[in-house]
Amino acid sequence: MKKIFKIIITLVILLMIVGLLFIRNLSSFTNDSRKTSWTDKMRLDYANLLLAKGLSASAAQAFEAYIGKSCADKKDLASICYKLGNIYIDLKDYEKALGSFYKSELLDPESGYKQDMDQKIVSALESLGLSQQAQYELDSRTSLKPAAQKNEKVAVRIGKREIANEEIDRVINGLPEQVRKGLNSDDAKLRFVREYVATEVLYEKGKKLGLDKNTNIRYAVEDFRKQLVLQELLGDEIKKELKVTPEDIDLYYKANKDKYKVAERVKVSFLELTDSAKESEISARLKQGKGEKIGQWIEKGQPVFLPNGIGGSTEAAESIFKQNKDEVVGPLKIKDKLYMFIVNQKEPQRQQEFEEVSEQVEREYRMQKEQQIIQSFLDKAIEQQEIEIFYQPKIENEKVSK
């Protein structure tokens, strides 16, 4: 009887052990099932959804998670890494961008986006202030090497660096038109080259001192790059949309004729009156043409300014405009001194004919149309995005309650 009891107890214990093992295995199976329910496709869809909603930082984390756990092939992973690098560029997190780009490069060295990625790697290094590394990448990446130029003559040599004539010419051609006109002689161009070389030398010195790593400079460079891209984009839009005909310019002139009126104006001469008893003498000298001439026209409503920094006066101008040609006016007080004037020339207000101002009219019409095109382009860009602006400018001198 005791043996039978022991056997029963043993069987019970064995059944309990088997039950516990079964429960543990069942729990493990359930947990594994839950773990594998979040598939690669779901992770990728989730990351793309965050990106589409404008949640770039969260999307970057989701892409990182996908890359870390995905079983996709190398080319697909390389493409995702490249996409992630672009997200980090937009977030201005250049170190993480470089990490993603380099990972993409290792996974697919001959990708179709290699040239674009090469350029962004160099740009990211420059944005981090790592100019030497950026130069190394620029030199080592074949996709960024310019085609060999034949017959380039060396214009300047700075140490081991050579600057070709073509580089100098390119810089000059990029200057504003008014500046270029000032370089119409050999001496002027030589002075410009010297100044250009001096700026290059000083720039290299600043980099050696680490000034190019300054955060404010990095942001300024980024903003400048953004402005250049924006100017190119808007320039393309203006070229595409701007159409100007002679009829348009003529209609614009007729609608804005008041803008092209020449105001009533005079030219005068003057003499200082130091002794009121000599007023008639000064008047006679002015009529004899012995006064000091003010060369430019004085328009009605504008002050009369005496040369050599003496000063000006609107009240004096009002008195002058009441006189006719060859009439003397004064004494008029300007800055505690008395002066007398004679009207040498006087012209009434007149309407300028279209032929006189056609270039000005066309220029102003083009500017107006360009502004309209740019504004329309910006409005459409905003309408195409889900944008909410919450910015509230601070009011100057606003009293803060304590």
Topology:
Elements: H1 2-36, H2 40-52, H3 56-69, H4 74-90, H5 94-107, H6 114-127, H7 131-140, E1 154-158, E2 161-164, H8 165-173, H9 177-181, H10 186-208, H11 215-241, H12 246-255, E3 261-262, E4 265-272, H13 279-287, E5 292-293, E6 298-299, E7 304-306, E8 311-313, H14 314-320, E9 328-334, E10 337-347, E11 350-351, H15 354-383
Antiparallel strand pairs: 1-2, 3-11, 4-5, 4-6, 4-10, 7-8, 9-10
Helix pairs in contact: 2-3, 3-4, 4-5, 5-6, 6-7, 11-15, 12-15
Features of the shown structure:
402 residues, alpha+beta, Serine Threonine Protein Phosphatase 5, Tetratricopeptide repeat, five-stranded antiparallel beta sheet, two-stranded antiparallel sheet, 11 strands
